[in-house]
Predict the structure.
Amino acid sequence: MHASTANTEAHNAHPTAAIALCMALEKAIDYALQHDPASRQKLVALAGRCLSLELTEPRLAITLTFTDGSHQPLLMASPFATPEADCALKGKSQGLIKLMNGPKHSLAGSDLRLSGHTGFLMELLDITQQLEIDWEAMIEQALGTIPMPFAAAQNQQVFNQNASHLLAGLIRNQAQHVKRLAERAPFFIGDFLTEEINAVPSKFEIDAFNSKVDDTQDDVARLEARLQLFQQRVASSINNLKPKNQ
Amino acid sequence: MDKDSITHFGFENVKASEKAERVAGVFHSVAAKYDIMNDVMSGGVHRLWKRFTIEAAAPRTGQQILDIAGGTGDLTRQFSQRVGPTGHVVLADINSSMLNVGRDKLINCGIAQNVTYTQADAQFLPFNDNSFDCITIAFGLRNVTDKDLALQSMLRVLKPGGRLLVLEFSKPKSKALETVYDQYSFKLLPLMGKLITNDADSYRYLAESIRKHPDQDTLKNMMINAGFGQCTFTNLTGGVVALHKGFKP
């Protein structure tokens, strides 16, 4: 890196990518919050406050500033860290992802360092975890209210629905199906490996094998004991056969 | 620079007095389709470079901003929102066609209350000393005949502590990127210019003027020589573009 480059290049490995991320973040959050008015209202209450992130792996600096959303996006992202932030978080990117996805707002063991107003960050994490985006409405907004063609309608109830709702329902059903599959996958995989392709032995076979190993171990132990006894008896007989005057 | 001294217009040597006229010809020609061409030529990345400039400028509510060579108003539009009704943005461009396109575009976006338009030469800025908190010049400095004179003029109208940001094409950091970039700008760029604006020559000039523009370190030294302090630069997209920043002491 050139010695004379500005601070941003020291903080962002790729300044162009960092600004692209900022712009994408702004757009995505603005769009998502259109479908979650409650969270939007909570974020409006944070107008004027800002959070600075200085992350490593990859090296990335972003400052998130909240506005009232009237003239500018509700969240404005900048690829520059600011010392004036209400709250600053430094550490690995992975730590931040864990913090956002984790059930508890704890920095313990995450290698993230926090400075400034802790309450602001906790408030923000609470809001992000309570996000309830009406994604069916998002699909409907994207597709519009397209009526189902008569031929495709199976009955009057389906006919009255529009394509967006049907698509949302289809996605929801598929998501539930995938979730059920994920829950049952360990059993399926076990059966497939043992019964179908005999790649691994079943639990019954392993237990039988273990039992046989135990029996063999016992047999060996008994044989060893008998050999020791036999050895002692031989030694004793040899001693008895020796002349007493020697 | 004397008006009879020789300067460059792309790879061509011309008299200093002729350069402004010829540059004006280029921009009169491309003004109407300037935005479309920018998107096509850069694949939309010019929006990222400009947004980066806005963030680096860090405009605050109530500040006075001068957007030199502001052309079609991409930076002015964002500055106008950032400085709010108590602030003010001056969109300056030497070329009347570009200025007209920019003014129409901004008015159509509903931006009027805190923006004024001035046809001005960057070498002789028609403003009082110490007038602006921030000055930007995006993709304009390479077209200026006497860059040193322009930098001195910018320093004069900047308030003490104010910052200048120069966004301009520069020298790619890697040889491989430079090779690809050369092929792109000397072969594809004039072709795209021909197809979209029916003007291959203007876009050939664009590619040539980029090569004649000072590289990162040279421009930084020019800013220091003009009197700017704390001069730094940031390479964007591998150095294809660089953002220079300096402060008036």
